C-alpha cells in the first residue's frame, strides 16, 4: 500500500517544525503544497520534486498528492501550522475514499494559536476558542453566532484569518459583536507573520483593536475578563496560588 504523509510545517520558520516533520520531509521524494508554503521549505529540502497549486485549488492539490502517492512515490502534503486545524487533513480523508490503496499518515505541527501565544506571553492559560473570520466556506451569520457565544462564555478567543482585501472590515465587525459582552479595555494581542520575515506583535485594548487593520497573515487574541498585562506580556491567569 502507498502512503501519503500529511505534514504540518508550523508557522513558517524551519526551526519551528517538529523533528518528526523534518524527518518525514527528508525521506519523501515529492512534496506537495500551496505555492506560498512550498517556498517556505524549498531551500531546506534540496533535490525534492515540488508540486504546487495556488490558493482556492485545495481539491486539485489534494487529488494531486493522492495520485502522486498512488503512483508509488513517497509523497508529503504540507500545510502551514497543523494540517488538522483549518488545513487539508479533513479534505484528504474525504477524497481518500477514492484512493483505497493510499494510506494517510498525519504529522502534527504547531498551529498559529500556539506559536502566536508564545510570542505574546501566556494568553491561552485558560479555556479558549479558535474562530476563523473567513466566510469563504462558513456564512458570516454563523461566524457571528460563534463570536457572540464565545464572548458571552468569557472564553479567551483566538481569531484566524481576521481580514483580507475583500474582508477589510471583518475584524471591526467582530469587535462590535464582542463588545456586547466585553469592555473596551479588554486586553487583546496581534501577531503577524509568525515565524517569518517581518514578524511583529503588539498588545492593545479591544477598543483599539477595532480600529486596527490586519491581514490573512495575522492572528488575533482576545483576552477574557481576567487577562492582564505583566511586564509587557499578555497573561491569562489560571488561578494558581502564590
Task: Write a concise keyword list for the protein shown above.
single chain; 242 residues; alpha/beta; Methyltransferase, Cobalt-precorrin-4 Transmethylase, Domain 2; five-stranded parallel beta sheet; five-stranded mixed beta sheet; 8 helices; 29% helix; 26% strand; elongated
Protein described:
This protein has 242 residues and is an alpha/beta fold. The chain folds into 2 domains: 2-107, Tetrapyrrole methylase, N-terminal domain (Cobalt-precorrin-4 Transmethylase, domain 1), CATH 3.40.1010; 112-235, Methyltransferase, Cobalt-precorrin-4 Transmethylase, Domain 2, CATH 3.30.950. It is built from 8 helices and 13 strands. The protein has helices at 19-27, 35-41, 58-70, 89-95, 112-120, 140-152, 170-178, 206-209; strands at residues 2-8, 30-34, 49-53, 75-79, 102-107, 121-122, 128-132, 156-160, 187-192, 200-205, 218-222, 228-230, 233-235. The strands form 3 sheets. Strands 3-2-4-1-5 form a 5-stranded parallel β-sheet, with helices on both faces. Strands 7-8-11-9-10 form a 5-stranded mixed β-sheet, sandwiched between helices. Strands 6-13-12 form a 3-stranded mixed β-sheet. Helix 6 (140-152) links the parallel strand 7 (128-132) and strand 8. The N and C termini lie far apart (55 Å). The mean pLDDT is 96.
Summarize the topology.
Blueprint: E1 2-8, H1 19-27, E2 30-34, H2 35-41, E3 49-53, H3 58-70, E4 75-79, H4 89-95, E5 102-107, H5 112-120, E6 121-122, E7 128-132, H6 140-152, E8 156-160, H7 170-178, E9 187-192, E10 200-205, H8 206-209, E11 218-222, E12 228-230, E13 233-235
Parallel strand pairs: 1-4, 1-5, 2-3, 2-4, 6-13, 7-8
Antiparallel strand pairs: 8-11, 9-10, 9-11, 12-13
